[in-house]
Amino acid sequence: MSDRDHKKGEIVAGALAPHPPHLVYAQNPPQNEPRSEGGWEVLRWGYERLRRNWSKLDYDVIVVHSPHWKTRCGTHFLGVEHFASKSVDPIFPHLFRYTYDLKVDVELSELICAEAEAEGLETQMMRNPDFRVDYGTITACHLSHPEWNKPIVCISSNQAYFDFSNEVGEARMLALGRATARAIENSGKRAVLLASCSLSHRHFTKEPETPEDMKHEHVYHNGQYLWDMKILNLIKEGKCQEVLDIMPDFIEQAMAETKDGSLTWLMGALGVPDYPGEVHGYGSVIGTGNAVVEWNPAWKSALNNGGVQ
Ligand code: 2XP
Ligand code: FE2
After folding, report:
1. CB of 20 closer than 6 A to ligand 1?
2. Number of domains in the chain
3. Domain coverage including residue 106
4. Which of 40, 88, 91, 224 is the pocket-test mutation for ligand 1 (most atoms within 8 Å of CB)?
5. Does 4 reside within a domain?
6. What's 10's DSSP letter?
7. Does the CB atom of residue 283 touch ligand 1 within 6 A?
8. Which terminus of the chain faces fewer neighbouring Cβ atoms within 10 Å, N or C?
9. Phi (first) and psi of residue 203, to 5 degrees
10. 291-300: per-residue pLDDT in tens?
11. What is the pLDDT of residues 136-170, one digit of tens each?
């Protein structure tokens, strides 16, 4: 029995953690083969601020929901304790060929899976030891905690938004968020959560010869940019219920990657924050809108007590 077992578990923080492989490429970590001259600094400095804040937190596990582990039926959870292999981005293999070696908290994965089932969701534990972990998971985890010394829980994105409607997808992701929060509480563990996704998601169709040549990087479409700012300003004002109210329209109008459910899952797990999220950085990557945003439930208590964040 660990000394956590008798305690109530807790979500200590959550983040919107976008996963363009460009951000890892630009950083030149030893795990990634291609070399770069940098680029996308404002976003990467945003991640730096997130890492600095999280280095002061005490937590056991990182729980991540990824748009690039797409499961045809229901929500799946990694159910093998150790994975080591090479992840190659299918669209950007020249930027991302990353050697990973990670541990999974299978116990917590199973608890979340069981709670999700209790919410009426279709679920499955993934037990194939040769499974290749998706790059959305690896990138968001690397950028938030490059030490890789904490186990992760990895949750797939299902097809509910695509097969039924955005509204059905949203309802299921809120249920998955509630299930995640309950399971963490019962586990006695302290967790941070990552919603691995971009906001607006219209890509450039041509890549510059030097991908990190920042004279080419810019917002693709002002309408998409204005949607991103609408969402981020609501988050900064602590109005996440309003974000959820307009999420189906945002998904359609901005081709948002939130259509895979990661951000709604996170908001559901955090109890739909009514306190400000901290936007650490915003920037475009091949024209898509990306923000690093942090929520810490302790900020809510500080606000209620009249304290300072
Ligand atoms: O296309 C995607 O979903 C990616 N993750 C690739 C790159 C940039 C996205 O924002
Ligand atoms: Fe993506």
Report:
1. yes
2. 1
3. 10-301
4. 91
5. no
6. E
7. no
8. N
9. -85, 150
10. 999 999 999 8
11. 999 999 999 999 999 999 999 999 999 999 999 99
